[in-house]
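Practice record 12: protein with nicotinamide-adenine-dinucleotide.
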Amino acid sequence: MANFAVPPMETIRVGFIGVGNRGHTAVRRVSELPGIEVAAIGDVQDVQVEATRQFVREAGRPGACHAYSGSAESWKAVCDDDGVDVVYIASPAEFHAEMALYALRAGKHVLTEVPGAQTVDEAWEIVETCEKARRHCMMLENCCYGEMEMLAQEIIRKGLLGTLTYAEGGYIHNLTARQLDNHYRNRGIMKPGLVIRRYGNTYPTHPLGPICLYFSINRGDRMERIVSLSSLSAAHSEFAAATYPADAWQNQIRWETGDVDISVIRTALGRVITLQLGMCTPRPYSRINLVQGTKGCFADYPPRVALSEVPGGESEWLDDKAFAEFNEAHKHPLWKRLGEIAREKGGHGGMDYIMDLRWSYCMRNGLPLDMDVYDLASWSSVVPCSAESDRQGGIPVELPDFTRGAWRTARPADIGDISDGR
Ligand SMILES: NC(=O)c1ccc[n+]([C@@H]2O[C@H](COP(=O)([O-])OP(=O)(O)OC[C@H]3O[C@@H](n4cnc5c(N)ncnc54)[C@H](O)[C@@H]3O)[C@@H](O)[C@H]2O)c1
């Protein structure tokens, strides 16, 4: 399925599963793009489906917009709907694999929120089912389309960083209040007496996806092995004690999940990737997004670059003015052309818009998508493999080669423009 493409699709009829926070905004964004129809929407909650259907009607967006809701199985009707070409999954993470598998077996192309699978077995089943179905199956890793991530991709493609050796990524995002509020999404943990113990990196793909594109993982290199260690658990219980009454459910559950997880991955070519996860610390938001080679280093938060005259030589970060000029000179064509409109449309600063524009452009023009099922499987497998390592005190765990050796010959990754077929 590497470099897999289907004949151009003039109209793409999309069925959305899970129209909560993420799925509803996806319908708003995607339904505005050329050639898209909202064919169907499905959610276990009637209220979500109704709100989304009302939006589609009032905004006059094209498509039959069949609505399926009311039971935990209603989503299957979206996949079985003959009027749907592509199933766009934005349900909670534990359902992604089951829904993707069902949709592929129903002959639909699949776009799924992150991560695409929770276990190695699920990841293999998705790969094998996708290969048999001959359908697209892409994880919607929007951070691959961030402005700074795409700048890094451009300078790597031009060779400015030299031979790549190391990258560092993180998902540092304080969500403590969101993880402990009385919202429907937390219903699974509103259980006094519950012990919450999660191991490893449960949400790795936002920083890892872009790094895998920098390193052409599955297309010239592959992730071979991971070690992972989590810190002690403190922030959730201290936050709950400071925020909620002693008898509230928030204070009746026991947190044993580490506040921070650090994972280290080694690739077949000997590159090293470190990943951090911290979703409950006061540290300000960061994906770190650092990549370095023999001739330079790019890092974000704040964005900066340091280049050396000779490989292995000294370098300094460019000052703000020089970086601004550098950014202008090397901006990815998509951000050059569409940056203003993407920022206006929004969705994590515009990257969601760029992502949706790009897969829909590729499908309408019969091009391979930027990420394939092997990316979905290998990036997602970091969830279970880091957990296994962490659970066993940080032992090295082998990461599966979902390409079964094809990574050696597949064409390098390159997110192109939407005009010249690159
Ligand atoms: N890429 C990103 O930047 C990003 C950001 C936020 C969330 N996410 C991912 O998007 C997904 C959705 O997150 P969210 O914040 O929108 O959550 P949410 O709870 O707001 O929405 C999830 C929706 O799925 C529905 N749902 C639950 N079970 C279902 C079932 N069996 N059948 C059909 N629908 C079902 C819920 O009713 C809800 O409307 C998660 O996997 C999350 O990890 C990604």
